[in-house]
Amino acid sequence: MPKNIGEHIRKRRLDLGLFQIEVAKMIGVTESTIWNWEHGREPELIHIPKIVELLGYVPFECPEDPIGKLRYFKLVKGLSYERLGELMGRDPEQLTDWLSGRVKPCKKNTKVIREFLQQ
Fold it and tell me: Per-residue pLDDT for the chain (119 aa), expressed as one digit of tens each?
């Protein structure tokens, strides 16, 4: 079982018989970027949706708690705090506080998060 996202990418690339340059073109990055990912460097958030598309699955566990689920949603969709804030009608700084664990949302906001994730 692959341990990190780079190992998932490498396994999928080899299973498909593709070169790094071919995967790079599919994702919209350079060949050296693929090499870096396959050797332990973490991809930027904006590339996660294309990586998930290439893999055909999400290589991350989805937590059960509302904040964990929101963090997972943000990651899988490749969203910035600003874009997530737009989608939720929330201040990006508030989302940063919640998702970093600095601030725990109140019950009302936890309900808002649950409702957003059920859409």
Answer: 778 999 999 999 999 999 999 999 999 999 999 999 999 999 999 999 999 999 999 998 999 999 999 999 999 999 999 999 999 999 999 999 999 999 999 999 999 999 999 98
Give the whole-angstrom CA distance, residue 18 versus residue 14. 6
If one counts every other C-beta atom within 10 angstroms of the C-beta of residue 15, the result is: 8
| Pair 54, 9: CB distance under 8 Å | yes
Report the CATH number of the 5-55 domain.
Answer: 1.10.260.40
* Tokens standing for residue 51: 């990586």
Domain extents in the chain: 5-55, 66-117
Residue the block writes with tokens 């899988």: 76
pTM, two decimal places: 0.81
Q: What is the DSSP letter of 35?
A: H
